[in-house]
Structure of Alpha-ketoglutarate-dependent dioxygenase AlkB:
Amino acid sequence: MDLFSQFTDSPINLLPKDGTVNYHGIVLSREEADKYYDVLLNSIAWKNDEAIVFGKLITTKRKVAWYAEKPFEYSYSNRTKTALIFNEELLALKELVEKETKETYNSCLLNLYHDGSEGMAWHSDGEKDLKKNGAIASLTLGAERKFGFKHKETKETVYKVLEHGSLLVMKDETQTYWLHRLPPTKKVHRPRINLTFRTIEE
C-alpha cells in the first residue's frame, strides 16, 4: 500500500445541506499522532469540566483544557474559562491544521475522554465569543470514536468514525442548523484526546 494512500486528496462534506462539515481524513502519520498523544496526555493542564444545569453545578468525568494565543475568556454552560498560553506542541498542531484547512485560529479547547463511557450530549457551538459561522477544526488523537450530527428541524442524522490523527472541520451555517455529539460506547477502553481549534472574537 502506498504510504500516502490513507490521506484524502480533498475534504469531503459530510452534511447534505445547511452547513459544511469537511472530513480531511488522517493528517498526521501514525508516528506523529502517537507522539502528540503521549505529550499532550502528560503535559496539558487537564481539569474536570464544570457546567451549570438547571441551576446545579455538575462536574464531568471528562477533562478539559483551554489554551490560546492570549488569555481569552470563553463562556459556555454558564461557566467562564480563562485561556492558558499555547505551548510548543499546540502551536505546531495549530500551524498544521491552518495549513490543511486554509483557515486561521487563535484558541483551542481540548477534551480528554478516558474511555468510551465518557461522551458529549447533543449541542451546538454557538457561544457569543466565537466567530460567527467561523471554522472549528477538530483533531482526534487516541481511540477512534463515532461522532454524530443531527439536523435541528428534520432530525436527520449523519455519523462518522473519527480516526487517530484525523481532522474534521465544522464551518458556515453548521452550528445554526445542526447539533453534534460524541455518543458513549462500551466498545472503547482507551483514552481519546480531541483538540478543537477555534476563533475567539474580542
About this structure: The domain at 20-198 is CATH 2.60.120.590 (Jelly Rolls).
